[in-house]
Amino acid sequence: MKVVIGISGASGAALGREVLRQLGAAGVETHLVITEGGERTITHELGPDGLQEMRRLATFAHDIDDLGASIASGSFGADAMAVVPCSMRTLAALAHGFGDNLLTRAGDVMLKERRRLVVLPREAPLTEAHLNSMLMLTRMGALVAPPVLPFYSKPETIDDMIREMAARVLTWLGVNPGDALTRWQGL
């Protein structure tokens, strides 16, 4: 399986890192693309080695400006893509078909090819423009899932919350997260 992971400038770099880690543990080939804003956020939230760590976790890392990269074409055959975290700028670009960088072009490919696109928007509160972009993406077949934690998993640490949310992303991508996901067992 081949999965594209996009990371844009919204807060939540640790979520993207954990998704990459879990996909790697599941044996999934990953193609990473990070916006300039994403690079700044990763460095701020994960420290000076955060970018190198992200690239190390990915099978392949692509430059944001390389519109000729493999993931820019439907013939490449990526099975799914997640944008985690997703800024409102990237959300709007995806909703309106602005393939102006490799991340938004790869997302556009997922939509036009009717493949899985999972978007984790990070913003609060939301404006009507944000909500309209989410609705547009949902109507096009994307799964829009703000990272909202299921508290029945009884997280004790931030790492527990991140691990749980990342496992959910894997399920939405069609990858079995194994024991990383707390499954509802009923009351």
From TrEMBL:
Q: What positions does the entry give for FMN binding? A: G9, A10, S11, T35, S87, M88, R89, T90, R122
Q: Which reaction does it catalyse?
A: dimethylallyl phosphate + FMNH2 = prenylated FMNH2 + phosphate
**InterPro entries according to UniProt:** Flavin_trans-like, Flavoprotein, UbiX-like
Q: Which Gene3D superfamilies match?
A: Flavin prenyltransferase-like (3.40.50.1950)
Instruction: Keywords in alphabetical order, please.
Output: Flavoprotein, FMN, Prenyltransferase, Transferase
* Record-stated family: Belongs to the UbiX/PAD1 family.
Q: Sorted alphabetically, which PANTHER family does this protein's record hold?
A: FLAVIN PRENYLTRANSFERASE, FLAVIN PRENYLTRANSFERASE PAD1, MITOCHONDRIAL
Q: What is this protein called?
A: Flavin prenyltransferase UbiX
Organism of origin is Pleomorphomonas diazotrophica
The record lists the lineage as: Bacteria, Pseudomonadati, Pseudomonadota, Alphaproteobacteria, Hyphomicrobiales
Q: Which gene encodes it?
A: ubiX
